[in-house]
Amino acid sequence: QVQLVESGGGLVQPGGSLRLSCAFFGSQFSLYVMGWYRQAPGKERELVARITSGGSTDYADSVKGRFTISRDYMNNVVYLQMNSLTPEDTAVYYCNALNLVDGRDYWGQGTQVTVSS
After folding, report:
1. CA dihedral 110, 74, 56, 40 (to 10 degrees)
2. 50-105 confidence digits (pLDDT tens)
3. Structure confidence at residue 110 (pLDDT)
4. Do residues 76 and 32 make contact, with C-beta atoms less than 8 angstroms apart?
5. What is the dihedral of CA 102, 107, 108, 111, to 10 degrees?
6. For residue 24, which of 5, 31, 76, 89 is within the disulfide window of CB 3.0 to 4.6 Å?
């Protein structure tokens, strides 16, 4: 069983930065593709960024050049550094862990990010 705990959300002004953290509780962290998704009010959940066990990354076009995903194997944490935030980035951000061996995936509880002046 895997548990994901997100933190780091909050209120930030346009142009500001936030760093989200996702703590992975479970075994074999290296077997998982880790991702960040977001869901804005009235919209579907969408992929923001993901990172494989080998460190390959993938980003939504809307965040390329502004967001960076990384993973810390020592502490089993995944980060999402978000820079140059705009009101369009306002959403609940969810951490996801996908096990490539058995196909199971897990979700965190979500953390709210609000970009507003």
Report:
1. 10
2. 999 999 999 999 999 999 999 999 999 999 999 999 999 999 999 999 998 889 99
3. 97
4. no
5. 140
6. 76
What pLDDT sits at residue 46? 98
Per-residue pLDDT tens over the stretch 4-60: 999 999 999 999 999 999 999 998 999 999 999 999 999 999 999 999 999 999 999
Alpha-carbon distance of 45 to 56, in angstroms, equals 22
Cα 104 from Cα 91, distance rounded (Å): 25
pLDDT recorded at residue 15: 98
Per-residue model confidence (pLDDT) at position 29: 93
Question: Nearest 10 degrees: CA dihedral of 76, 82, 87, 90?
Answer: 0
Angle at 34 between CA 105 and CA 26, to 5 degrees: 65
CA dist., res. 5 & res. 23, Å (int) = 5
Nearest to 69 by CA among 104, 96, 107: 96
